[in-house]
Write a structure and sequence with these properties.
single chain, mainly alpha, 14 helices
């Protein structure tokens, strides 16, 4: 007896219909890209003007005829801020770097510990302390400026790094952001650490901080930029030229007698380079860290 096998029927695939793209979504995406491009262009205009004027001569900057680019690039302008005898620009850059780094590290330490304590340590007056911290955000800086100066002066911290850094270590806003972030931090990790015998401080250093580096990097970026751009407090505390920060040094290029425009713009361009490098290096953590605050609790 012979058996016959029928070959399997060939599988016929249905023709793939082209996916219809709605015209509304295309127009919406195009409009979004156009709006983003315009916003980016407007954001870059000040940087273009800084670089353009820094590489020009004063007659070209103040001339009646607008020029998009220098007729001849003045590469020698790069060294002029450092050669000016009236302002020690290199020293001011170093002062800003020291103040910015130490201010950032100190603020992260103080505010993260305060935020962690408010978010995790049980205390019946924790909410009251938190509301008091929020209350500091409503007090204008001008109100506390004079008392802070009197205190720093009485301690002998004028023209010192201590006077420039220590009074601004605590930030109510940064403390608030840390508290909001720690409220959303997984409690299971901390409970496991306490089972292993760690207290609140041990869990903070060994568990919370290593798993929160993205948020710390975001806060470090914001704090460093704020410290680098600070002007009024360093102007009052740094009375000696050796204690000037870069922002105070820039203000001394504009006097009542003369204003050297290309020197001001070149010094400005050099002073923002550290901020650009910091932002480019930490930008991918900036938005992510702010988004992780949760704004809850």
């Amino acid at each position: 007896m012979t058996t016959t096998t029928t070959p399997p029927a060939e599988r016929v695939e249905a023709p793939v219909r082209p996916r219809r793209v709605r015209s509304g979504s295309v127009i919406g995406s195009t409009g979004l890209y156009v709006a983003t491009g315009i916003a980016a262009l407007l954001f870059l205009i000040p940087f273009y003007l800084i670089v353009r004027n820094a590489l020009m001569t004063d007659p070209e900057i103040t001339g009646e005829e607008w020029k998009w680019f220098p007729s001849e690039i003045q590469w020698g302008n790069f060294t002029k801020p450092f050669d000016d005898p009236s302002v020690d620009f290199a020293r001011s850059m170093w002062n800003s770097a020291v103040v910015g780094v130490l201010h950032t590290l100190g603020t992260l330490l103080v505010c993260s510990l305060a935020g962690y304590g408010l978010a995790r340590i049980p205390y019946k007056h924790a909410n009251k302390v938190f509301y008091a911290v929020l209350g500091t955000l409503m007090v204008p800086t001008a109100v506390t400026f004079v008392p802070s100066f009197v205190l720093v002066s009485s301690l002998g911290w004028i023209d010192t790094y201590r006077g420039l850094i220590i009074p601004g270590l605590f930030s109510g806003f940064t403390c608030f952001l840390f508290r909001q972030y720690f409220l959303g931090f997984p409690k299971e990790l901390e409970e496991a650490a306490r089972v292993d015998g760690l207290g609140y401080m041990g869990a903070y250093w060994r568990v919370v901080v290593p798993n929160s580096l993205n948020f710390f990097a975001a806060m470090a970026t914001i704090t460093f930029i704020s410290g680098w751009n600070s002007f009024l407090w360093p102007l009052v505390i740094g009375q000696d030229p050796s204690a000037w920060t870069v922002q105070v040094a820039l203000s001394n290029y504009m006097t009542g007698q003369t204003i050297t425009y290309h020197l001001i713009f070149m010094a400005t361009a050099i002073s923002i380079l550290p901020l650009v490098f910091v932002f480019l290096f930490l930008q991918r953590w900036l938005v992510q860290g702010i988004a992780q605050t949760g704004i809850k609790g």
